[in-house]
Amino acid sequence: MTGAQSSRTRRLARRGVQIGAALIGLLVVAVVAISILPDSAWQRWIASALAHKTGRAVAIDGPVQVRLLRLTPSISIDGFRLQNAAWADSRPMLQIRHFEASLRLSSLLRLHPVFARVRIDAPDIDLERDAKSRANWDFSSAGATQPAPPKPSAPLRLPPIQELVLTEGKLSANDAIRKLKFHGQISIAERAEQLGDSALKVRGTGTLNAKPFDLKWSGGPLLALDEGKPYEFDAAVTAADIELNAHTVIERAFDLGSVDSTFHLRGKDLADLYYLTGLALPNTPAYEVTGTMHRDQWKFSVDDLKGRLGRSDIGGKLSIDADRERPLLRAELTSARLDLADLAVPLGTQASSEHTSGTLAPPQQGGESVNPRSHGARARPAVSAVDRQSKETGYLLPDADLQVNRVRAMDADVRFEAAAIAAGKMPMKKVRFHLLLKDGHLQLAPLEFTLPQGEFAGSISIDARQAVPVTDLDMKLSQVNFAQFKPKASDTAPLSGEMLGRIRLHGRGASVHKSAADADGDMTFVVPHGEMRAAFAELTGVDVAKGLGLLLTKKDETTEIRCGVASFRGQHGDLEANTLLFDTTHVRVSGKGHINLKDEAIHIELRGEPKQMRLVRIRAPIELHGTLAHPEIGLKPGPLAAQGGAAVALGTLLTPMAALLAFVDKGLAKDANCAALIEQANFKQ
Fold this sequence. Notes:
Elements: H1 3-35, H2 39-54, E1 58-60, E2 64-67, E3 74-82, E4 94-103, H3 105-109, E5 115-121, E6 124-129, E7 164-175, E8 180-190, E9 200-208, E10 211-219, E11 231-239, E12 242-252, E13 255-267, H4 274-277, E14 287-296, E15 299-309, E16 312-321, E17 328-335, E18 338-339, H5 340-344, E19 360-361, H6 388-393, E20 401-402, H7 404-407, E21 411-418, E22 421-422, E23 430-438, E24 441-451, E25 454-463, E26 470-481, E27 495-508, H8 512-517, E28 520-527, E29 530-533, H9 535-540, H10 544-547, E30 558-571, E31 574-584, E32 587-596, E33 601-610, E34 618-619, E35 622-626, E36 631-635, E37 641-642, H11 646-650, H12 657-664, H13 666-670, H14 673-684
Parallel strand pairs: 5-7, 6-7, 17-21, 18-22
Antiparallel strand pairs: 1-3, 2-3, 3-4, 4-5, 4-6, 7-8, 8-9, 9-10, 10-11, 11-12, 12-13, 13-14, 14-15, 15-16, 16-17, 19-20, 21-23, 23-24, 24-25, 25-26, 26-27, 27-28, 27-29, 28-30, 29-30, 30-31, 31-32, 32-33, 33-35, 34-37, 35-36
């Protein structure tokens, strides 16, 4: 370096020092000037700045004190009030009797502030959201009638606080979207007499939707807390019927974006968690689950979920991605032993007037129109079914309305498989389904119920994007062997042989029952071949020989079922029998009737015509009546009809066999044996 260059460098260095000194001097002068401002000026400036930031009127009724020239700069405010949104309650959104905070000057100079102390006395907070989704805490859309869709907030990252005190806190919340009302009190205190024994205590009490709410939170001491190290606390929450106990570790103190929490959760219905989480979980029986939840910014995951739903065990993993317009729930769940009654609960079979908080609303009583073909709607008898819904409504099909606003609020991708099933008298081996929910459109595909011999499988689609949900169902029965269905008091199955079938229905309605009451479609069952045993009479409780023209002769214990078809066409909830015909060794059985899904009434008659000349040819028809929830079978009372013209008198309309059998299974249409027998029987009629 030359002498000239060295001289130039020294001059630049001296100028830099001079400029730096000047800036420091200006900063000192500014700090001194600000520090000697009168408290009244601070009061006006703080109120004006917050009013500009929030778009709401701000009032400070008491004194304001700002002390900057000290090692712990501090501020205190008395009598603070923030106006509510124009459409909300007239009382302030926030009012605080006394607020004070002090900062460590050294942390401020490092541009990483640490609060030495924060004290808040008598805060009173009012949170409101109306049916238009306007929230009084959303200052960006103040006064807007059509606010933008809510976006997820960034995980809370608080500045370190070494001593925190909150006294006489009050919080009220009224959320029309979640139908949530909360009123409570909260207090926070840290005992710091001895550093090693000090701990943070949080207590909250109140009511959640008129039911008790209680929060207890105990954490480690904040004094001398290293913000770079984990912070641990225990929490116990009781909210209505929900009980939660959790041990939580925040990886970096005051940064809630990275959290691990080991939890134990139990309650009466998982759908109740909507009030606390905003997730539209399905209705369930009473539950108890444990696991470890990990949060990474907007993503939550549980990889070790296990517990019970009702009498079924549950395990697996799930995750929630909240960084979307609608949260996305993904889950892979398994059950070693599933009680089938527990799987029925999500359909609404246990919704009742005392349980209104789930994804399903309770059934509405009355107001349901009845098809005049139901021969006068008889009062539905009391149902002895195990589920509460059937006892209350008399319906077998669940009548709890789907809460479409919740279904539209989230997306889901859930896979479930049960290895063993407890299904009462129904033999069953496995259940498997894949649920997809996207933008209010729910699909179960596949939905499979595996029997020891046979399967019931297909898909269900529910479009909840419209005002009234639209349901499409397409299910098939494959190779279902009758031999696996035995009466409770018998070792002999009344029937043997395979049954195939298909149900395809389309309907509109908020519940399973309402959708079925509107349904159009087809329902067909075929028995290509089989055998009927004497135990059939014991099963039905009627004299089958008299009722169907000697299905079984005195010398025969069994009779061959050469082919049988039961086909129904549905229009507006009325399932009309297109074909009811069974060809056996001795008798052709034909029938007529319908099943009305509006009131679930059954009206079906069956008659038998012996194939051989018999001296006695007058037989009483068998009548199936009652309701789906309470079916009855017996001989029809009244004068006996002549058997010879029975099939014609019944007016049975046979559809083309090839098309009907192909609807169930294409293989049946190729095997013309069953179709030929039915057509032959039709020709003889």
